Structure formats: structure tokens, C-alpha cells
Fold:
Amino acid sequence: MRTLWNKYRYLIFRRATQLSLLLLYFGANAWGWTILMGNLSSSLFLETIPLSDPYAALQMVAAGAVLATDIMVGALIITMFYLLIGGRAFCSWACPVNLVTDAAAILRRKLGIDGISKRQPASRNTRYWVLVLSLIISLMMGVTAFEFISPISMLHRGIVFGLGFGWAAMLIIFLFDLFVLKNGWCGYVCPLGGFYSLVGKVSLIRVHHTMENCTSCMKCKTVCPEQQVLHMIAKESIDVLSGECTNCARCIEVCDDDALSFSIRKLVKNKKSGE
Amino acid sequence: MHLQATPNKMENRAVSDRRKFILKMARSAGIAALGGFVWSAYVDEVTASQLLLRPPGAIKEEDFLKTCIKCGLCVEACPYNTLLLAKPGDNKPMGTPYFIPRDIPCYMCPDIPCVPICPSGALDEASVTTNGVLDIKVAEMGLAVIDDENCIAFWGIQCDACYRACPILGEAISVEYKKNERTGKHAFLTPVVHANACTGCGLCEKACVTEKAAIFVLPREVAMGRVGDHYIKGWDKKDEKRLEKASEIKSTTEISKDSAVDSLNSGSGDLY
Structure:
């Protein structure tokens, strides 16, 4: 039991966070709760504090909208949180699409699809291209381009306000991740993930690798949705510094050798010891 | 010969690396262009829908689409569940709020809860405020339009359902009396909508007794024409104000080469 908890504690926390966010939003619409109203695009916490999606705000600016104070303050709060503390934690701790893509990843491993198609015929940088493209389309068409097609919004908005055909989008993402590209949506395409990868570059909470404990079993790399960030495994004792790490902590849980742990980024680097 | 071959090889590889890079960039740009094309075509399609009724205080549709962050706070604030967020498959700009008056109209709450809660300014409090107080009667959600072919009051059957349902009774909808020439002894009591008072709440559309409502709300942009600067109510000082910002428009056609008098006198060439 103890080991089971150790193997899944962060996963349980993450699922609890994701689901309680959705429950709070749902409750606000269905039963008039006032803890967290709105949805992940923009919400009102305790009827006073605005929280807004900074990427949506960025598209609004590109589209030529005048940002209202609430949106600006809300986007700033969220940006500062992920910039200073959480890193790209939105993707694995808040985003509901993570539930869908994680399910696809598990099934993909169980079916052994990774073993059959090892090559990933796409670039992780695609998301940054999509990010730039979304801003260009916003600029040219005067609308928030990604917000009109975002499967993320479709899902969280759908759960709170009615899904419509949104389930089809979820099915497509699930099948895409399962058969076409491993971690395809979150790891290659999603511009919101790209946005938070850039925001999360300097945040304080980091996964730390202790090489001395590592037995090179590579369980962490198998489970990691952004394998490229774990390039230091069995090579160096350093923090995972890439902004593309979602701080999902699955690597920490699956490690049997205590070689991975959460740490606070060391702000002053000691060059000699490499820490 | 052998000595020369080595630098040649080096040069080939250098060119090849550069080529690879250029090809990679071109390929990415090509995919981006293709994606952008599909993406913008879709966005163009969904934003083209003009027949949406927005919540009170909504800014101009064009600005609304770029300003609304699609959070649904207005939907949650509405006590009558009037407002909906466009879902995938609705063929409307996704996630934006709208209402269907035949299902649930806007009941015109005096405190307009849907507007002050809007974080983005897409619902503009100032546009539904008179003298510093929220005033739902100045809202312009749409305009009720009557299809007099299918309105039974125009047939001579007495019905004033829309008139009675109107929350600004007598101002937004009035009833007009006219002699029914067909019977010679009855009157038509027909409804007339007044655009200056109608808010587009849709209570009339909800109340209409015909199978498909014969009075219905359209967005004002769709339902109304525009006179432009060529005509003016000379007897109305307020109407003259419209022309204060009017500017001269010069159009150039084939005959504007010559002065007006010359081209009329010349007699040659067609004027049209």
C-alpha cells in the first residue's frame, strides 16, 4: 500500500486538481457556487480575483482588441504564477485535455505501439510554429484565432456549459495520440503548451536528477510525455531546465532508485560542481 | 587530382547543409501556409454568421469577436438561463454568448446581472447606463420585425399577444387601428414596432401565437437600413448633426475629365 501511494501520489494529486477545477466551474454554473466561476479562459475566484488565460489575452491583443483591466490583471496573475513558480504545470495539473492524452499514452504503451513505430515523424517545435501562426491569423482576421478552434476550450467549456460536438474533437485527439503520434497533441501541436513552455523556462520548481542514484533503467523516459527534457538521465546531476517539462512528476514516481525529485531551482550556479 | 577532390567534397557538403536548412524552412513554411489556409477558412466561416443575438450591452459584432474571452460568466449570471455559449456543431462563433428568444427571451432584469460581470469589456456597461444608473431599456440586443403576411392581426383576427408581452408596452410596440375593407364593418388592430424603443428582448417573439413566430428579433445591423449622408430631415435639428462629420467624396468616371458644363455641351459621346 505504501509503495502504491509512492508510485502514484503525484498522479493522484494531479487528477484531484484537474477534476476539482472542473467540478468548481461546473458547480458555479449548475448550482450557483461562487468559489471559482467562469472557465479556464477566464474566471473569477471568490467573486473578486480575476484569472485569465494569458495566451487568449495575447491573441486578443494581436486581433486588435482593447484589453480590459480585469483581463490584464487576470492574465498577469496567471503568467506570474507559472513564470515564477509552476513552470509548464498548467498542462499536467489544470488542462482537462491532459486526461484524454494521458489515457491515449497509457493505452499506447499497453498495446505496445511504441515498440512498433519508434520513429516520431514530427518536430517538437511544431507547437511554436502553431503559436506564431495563431497570432498571425488573429492579427489578419481580427479574431482570437486559436480560441475559435481550441479543443482545450471545447472540453472545459463543454463540461461546464454543454459539450455539443466537442466529444468528436476529443476522440480525434485521442486517436491521433494513440495511433499517429506519441503524445502528439500535447507534445507537438498544442500552441498553449508551446506558450507555457516559453513562460515556464525560468520557474523555480524543477525536477532534479541525481546521477549517483541512477541505474539507467530508463523508466522515467518511457513514461515522460516530453522525453527530450530528460536528456541528462544517467549523465549529469542537474535540474530539468527545459520549459517543455510539464512538472507532471511521473518520472519521480516511477523511479525506483530515488534519482529524481522535485527541487527548487538553484538561483546561483556553482560552475565547478555543476550544480 | 586527388588533392583537389577533398576541398570539392567539403564544398559539396557545405552546400548540402545549407540546402537542407533552406528546404527545411521552406517545408515548414509550406505546412504553416497550408494549416493557416484551412484554419483561417474555418474562422472566416464561423464568424460570418450574422444572425446571432448577443446579450445586452454587447459591443459591435466585429469588436465583440475579438474582445469576448468566452468565459461564460454572463451565462452564469443570467437568472433565466436565457444566455447560451455557442457549442461546436452550432455553426456559430464557438464559445460566444447568444440567445434564442423563441426558446427563452431576455426578461430585461433592471440590474442587468450579465453585463457588469463581463471581464473583457465585450459587454459594455456604459452602453446600458443612463445618468450613472444601469438602464436595460436602452439596450440594443436586436429589433423585432413583423412578417405581416403571417401575422394574424393583419388578417383581421384579433390578437395582441406581442403587444401585451412587450415589457415596454406602448412604446416599443403599439397597436394601430385601421378599417377592414373586406368585411366593411370590422377593424384591423395591427402591431407596429418602434425601433427607437425596442431593445430586442424577444418577449414578443416568445409570445407570438403562430406556429413559427410572425414577429421575431433580428440583430439591428441586419434588420435596419442606413440612410447615409444624401438625405436629411431638414426639419429636425438632431438629424442635421449627422452631417457634421460628413466629408466630400470625389468619384472619377470617364466623363469627369471635362467640367460638367463642357461635357453637357459637347454633345458627343454617351453620358452613360
About this structure: The radius of gyration of chain B is 30 Å. The domain at 50-139 of chain B is CATH 3.30.70 (Alpha-Beta Plaits). Strands of chain B lie at 84-85, 97-98, 129-130, 133-134, 143-146, 173-180, 186-193, 215-218. Residues 252 and 258 of chain B are 11 Å apart (CA to CA).
